[in-house]
Model the fold of this input.
Amino acid sequence: MNLFSLKAKQVFIILLICISFDVDCKWINHSFEVMGTQSNIEFEVPKMKMASNTLQRVIDEMHRIDALMSPFKPTSELSKINRLASTHPVHISKELYDLLVKSTEFSKLTEGAFDISFSSVGYLYDYRKSVKPTEKQIEELKKNINYQSIKLNEDNQTVEFLQPLVKIDLGGIAKGYAVDQCIQILKDSGIVNAYVSAGGDSRIIGKKDDRLWYIGIKHPRDKRKLLVNLPLEEVSISTSGDYERFFVKNGVRYHHIIDPKTGDSARELQSVTILAPSSTTADALSTSVFVLGLDKGLKLINGLSDISAILVDSQGRLHYSDDIARLK
Ligand code: AMP
Ligand code: MG
Done:
């Protein structure tokens, strides 16, 4: 679809919303597919005439980040790194460099539970086609999962892999980053009340019609149900679940969150929800805690200020970080 027809479509949708909500309409709602998932944007505009342009900038930003960081698009900068960084240092954009630095910081914080080089094995899973790597492939490739093999050189802004078969994937942090970027665009445009989500990563600012926002956490085993519906304000909320991308083979659930130690799916929890000031942090920590499991995961979160967690264990039982447990 070209940009003109996309813009025309957005304007049409906004007009439709305005007509259906009568003259006083100020809320813009839009959903679209990006990064292999659904993104929802909702914001209140002080002046209707700014709605179309602001919405388009947010949509463009999501697609820009997808084009830069997708491991599935051969033209992305991330794909270029995966092709070349095993042979020599690759100069990359400041934006991608900074996100690689941030990813490495989360690896250190989580003692390797968060590791973008999980993809050295992870790329061999295809959840839609129920395909997984063989035991032999996992054994051979597992040694390439090690964030310390990702050498970042700040002076030259380069990345180099110190092992020959390393692959990286930002799926555990890029959606959160994209949500933060979009919220910044909305704030810079003067928007005070907004909700932006990409898959399981959301962030809210301000209020919804003078009330708190309500964000639901999906039940990990029943799509029709919500586990909880939380009244929230000025926060990011990310959920990682074993029900998002998975298949079951011989009674074993294979899903998209990989334990870097085994190259296999992490199975101690069914879902992890993190509340944090930024969506990048919430996203990275939801993936991390999923890998760490119940005890180590809660210990990590309880040691961090401004971060809360709601976990569902393998038996479907709920667990909370200390700050939430104290409220109950
Ligand atoms: P999320 O959707 O935030 O739960 O993250 C899941 C995504 O993170 C997966 O689809 C992978 O792209 C990526 N991922 C899986 N395992 C890990 C890991 N151990 N560390 C970092 N990223 C991961
Ligand atoms: Mg995540």
